[in-house]
Amino acid sequence: MIIAIDGPAASGKGTLAKRLAEHFALPHLDTGLLYRAVGRVALDRGLELDDADATAEIAELLDVAELDEARLRGREMGEAASIVAAHPKVRKALLDLQRRFAHQRGGAVLDGRDIGTVIAPGAEVKIFVTAAPEIRARRRHLELEKRGDAPPYEEVLADIRKRDARDAGRTDAPLKPAPDAHVLDTTALDVESAFAAALLLTNRHKD
Ligand SMILES: Nc1ncnc2c1ncn2[C@@H]1O[C@H](COP(=O)(O)OP(=O)(O)OP(=O)(O)O)[C@@H](O)[C@H]1O
Ligand SMILES: Nc1ccn([C@@H]2O[C@H](COP(=O)(O)O)[C@@H](O)[C@H]2O)c(=O)n1
After folding, report:
1. Beta bridge partners of 185
2. What InterPro entries does the entry give (predicted)?
């Protein structure tokens, strides 16, 4: 079974994907980390994030085994990722490895922006997780506060709005629900309620 979880920044898709993967004992890939890693390497090398050829070359040589989540999670990397993710050549370079992951024997859970639309359009379960931008910003702000690294709430909200607009506005694989995705709005749901709703949707497809 392939479970495709998509949604905008800080919607809670990663949290849900991890929980579903644990529940069904399936491997999980957070595809945002791939784009974050490309952005990270480009910045480390002093390259322009707008340089489609240079960033695509980084994407082609990316070693998934070396993704260091802690280093890639920061705000700056989210912004860098969304810039390189708008290059069709970068997306093309990362396509095969995501498709191979999705189609491994036994199935997988992937979360990102284009899993249900591009990476695994045949996925048995597609969930598009969303929430009001102000709520997403509040959750992300809380998370950053806990890490001792929180800018003002307004900056977090502005980051989220900017990233959503870039991700939804690009020509290649824009952020949008697949026509057959279940839209799960978690604005008024805590983590447990959101997980229960996602589980219900997934089990409905399994039966
Ligand atoms: N339903 C919820 N209620 C309250 N907090 C939540 C909920 N879902 C997720 N969170 C919290 O919101 C924050 C963002 O969640 P998460 O990292 O899963 O989002 P994401 O969509 O994967 O983010 P990104 O796109 O930046 O990778 C985390 O701190 C998480 O614990
Ligand atoms: N399938 C995907 C996943 C991510 N992106 C881009 O990467 C940025 C960071 O993703 P997070 O999930 O870690 O927040 C995101 O803003 C997208 O630009 C993507 O394009 N496709």
Report:
1. 130
2. Cytidylate_kin, Cytidylate_kinase_dom, P-loop_NTPase
Beta carbon of 113 within 6 Å of any ligand 2 atom: yes
State whether the beta carbon of 101 lies less than 6 angstroms from ligand 2.
Answer: no
pLDDT at 112: 98
Complex confidence, ipTM = 0.98
Annotated binding residues for ATP? 7-15
Cα 50 vs. chain centroid, distance in angstroms?
20
- Residue 134: CB atoms within 10 A of its CB come to 13
Domain total in the chain: 1
Closest C-alpha among 161, 150, 3, 181 to residue 82: 161
pLDDT (0 to 100) of residue 73: 84
13 within ligand 1 shell (Cβ under 6 A): yes
CATH number at residue 160: 3.40.50.300
> Structural domain of residue 104, as residue ranges?
2-206
Alpha helices in 73-150 (DSSP H): 75-84, 88-102, 133-146
How far from each other are the two terminal CA atoms of the chain, in whole angstroms? Answer: 12
Which of 5, 13, 15, 115 has most ligand 1 atoms within 8 Å of its beta carbon, as the pocket-test mutant?
A: 15
Per-run averaged pLDDT (10 residues), the chain, 207 residues: 97 98 97 96 96 97 81 88 98 97 97 98 98 98 90 96 96 96 98 98 83
